[in-house]
Design goal:
It is a multi-pass membrane protein. This protein is mostly helical and 423 residues long. It is built from 16 helices and no strands. It is globular and about 65 Å long.
Length: 423
């Protein structure tokens, strides 16, 4: 792994460490809120509504936050977002300490936290190219992938332990304490004012960002290929059924399969040192997403074999071989998705002008937030109409075919060269 960004930019190092520590706490709260609402209501639907309620505000926050990032000091905007996120998390902790039995405060405060986190993430990505030279941006993206892998593995595990031993209120309070690390990374940044012409916040500013995207074929294609991958390659909604009908193991299987993707992303970041030497980012993205499609199709094959062999063992047992094979497929999917993300992020950070970077990052946030939801819809509808293993198998094959078609139809993306980055 290339650690040069941490050595060469103390500002990036502080921002990265602070975000990683705060992210562990945030993942703790995500899990704890779900468990808390289930304890209060006994309803899986009520738990699922936590993310649904936050979706539209997150999309709006991504667009609006990106627009503000191109109009004001990005350090100040990130600090405002961090204060809002900290206060909303403290509000969740207070609701738990006062033993609130209503669920609406958790919905509202979780949505507010998600909005603030979206703004912080959008602004942070726009700040990084000002802290590091272009040659180190792939390594910086890999470091972010590693920290994300740690967040989504350590955070939920800590949440489970703390909820079981200390209760919800203490779990949320630990997140409040951990989140203070984010302030250390942001407060110590220099002022980061957008370079070049700045535009007054408003609808016209967003429209200008969309017009830029219309004339930026490489950036636009990086968004499209991600939508393809997330639409047809998100089998997560299948995991509960796989744990009951195909592999067995129930909730344990769901947890293992979910964690496998994060572990794959973490491992790929740990061996990512040579990615910074690759110049043809478009081809690298194409091959990475092709590998992602193959991994998702492989997951479908594993589930199909398990079903054809009789499904989940009786008596609550688990098909260990099938679980290992399915976990390997999901780890490979996480690894290839992380490699794709490294190059897509680097392309966005280097090919887009600084005074437009916030708005394009905001549009990308919409893509990242919306794609998985469309993917869940694809999985849900097709599973209802067919069999359990068919959606991931078909989806993986569709990803491979559509990525090959996209690479053929957009030669500028195929020939993209990091030495001469063009949007």
């Amino acid at each position: 792994m290339d650690l040069a960004p941490l050595r060469e930019s103390p500002a990036f190092a502080r921002l990265w460490v602070g975000n990683a520590i705060a992210g562990i706490g945030s993942q703790m709260t995500v899990v704890a809120v779900g468990l808390h609402i289930y304890e209060l209501t006994g309803s899986t639907f009520a738990v699922g509504m936590v993310g649904t309620v936050a979706l539209v505000p997150m999309i709006i926050a991504g667009l609006y936050g990106g627009m503000l990032a191109d109009a004001m000091d990005r350090r100040r905007l990130a600090l405002i977002g961090a204060i809002v996120a900290w206060l909303s998390t403290a509000g969740i902790a207070a609701a738990a300490w006062f033993e609130t039995t209503e669920i609406w405060p958790f919905y509202v405060l979780t949505a507010l936290t998600s909005v603030a986190a979206t703004v912080i993430g959008t602004v942070r990505q726009a700040i990084l190219p000002r802290l590091l030279p272009a040659r180190l941006l792939p390594a910086a993206s890999a470091l972010q992938g590693a920290s994300f892998g740690v967040m989504v593995t350590v955070g939920p595990a800590l949440a489970g332990v703390l909820v079981a031993t200390a209760g919800f209120a203490w779990t949320y309070t630990v997140d409040v304490l951990l989140f203070t690390a984010a302030f250390a990374g942001i407060v110590t940044l220099p002022a980061v004012v957008p370079e070049g012409a700045r535009h007054k916040p408003g609808l016209e500013s967003i429209r200008e960002g969309l017009r830029f995207l219309r004339h930026a074929p490489n950036i636009r294609m990086s968004f499209i290929v991600d939508i393809i991958a997330m639409t047809f390659g998100r089998p997560h909604a299948l995991f509960p059924a796989v744990g009951v009908l195909a592999i067995g193991g129930g909730a344990v299987t769901v947890g293992v399969l979910t964690a496998a993707g994060a572990v794959g992303a973490l491992l790929s970041s740990l061996v990512s040192g040579r990615l910074g030497t690759i110049r043809r980012h478009g081809i690298a993205i194409g091959w990475a997403i092709t590998g992602y499609g193959a991994s998702i199709a492989g997951f479908g094959v594993v589930v199909a074999i398990a079903v054809m062999q009789g499904g989940a063992p009786r008596g609550g047992g688990v098909d260990a071989a099938a679980l290992v094979a399915a976990s390997v497929m999901m780890a490979l999917a996480g690894a290839t998705d992380n490699v794709s993300a490294i190059f897509r992020t680097t392309m966005l950070q280097t090919a887009v002008p600084d005074n437009m970077r916030g708005r394009l990052q905001g549009i990308f946030t919409v893509v990242v937030a919306g794609g998985p939801r469309v993917g869940d819809l694809y999985i849900g509808v097709l599973t209802t109409l067919t069999v359990l293993w068919f959606p991931p198998l078909l989806g993986g094959l569709l990803i491979i075919a559509l990525i090959a078609l996209a690479m053929r139809l957009q030669p500028t993306f195929r020939h993209y060269d990091a030495v001469d980055p063009r949007p």
